[in-house]
Amino acid sequence: MRLKERINYYMRALHRDIGFFVIGLTVIYVISGIMLIYRETGFLKQERTVEKHLSPGINEQKLGMILHVRDFKVLKSEGDVVYFKNGTYNKATGIVNYSAELLPPLMEKFNSLHKSSTRNAAHWFSSVYGVLLLFLALSSFWMYKPGTGSFRRGIYIACSGFAGAIILLFI
Predict the structure, then answer these.
(1) pLDDT at residue 143, as a whole number
(2) Using the 8-state DSSP alphabet, how is residue 2 labeled?
(3) Distance (Å, rounded) from C-alpha 134 to C-alpha 141?
(4) In what order do the strands lie in the sheet with 46-53?
């Protein structure tokens, strides 16, 4: 087997095997990506009561950042108790109680994987997944012999997709 034929053979085999390998993670990323698009709506969210133990004496501005509550605003303060929309915080004990619309636990796991940062060990898995997807995209050019109609069609479609992505960046 010539070198060019061997490279084509291995690229096609790797493309096939890596494609099958990443199917599960791709499904998770698709589901969590769709959920993140609609994160500002009530899509799949359930009302739940949350109780957390924080450090006592946190100021009101920092409290909103710690709780990750958008548009956090203190409604009133009475003694050690701070009242905000849907909840309270006791400055003396550090206990905060509030109700929030949250995704089911499994969906939260999906989203945490999608949004992983370098502080989370899952970021290595996400990085490898990204490299594998890049390989799948590039190895698709080895699916057909150069010069054939199918190869040219693939080049046109790839260029169209690239142009569409660039246009999307400026919308």
Answers:
(1) 87
(2) -
(3) 12
(4) 46-53, 95-102, 87-90, 81-84, 74-78
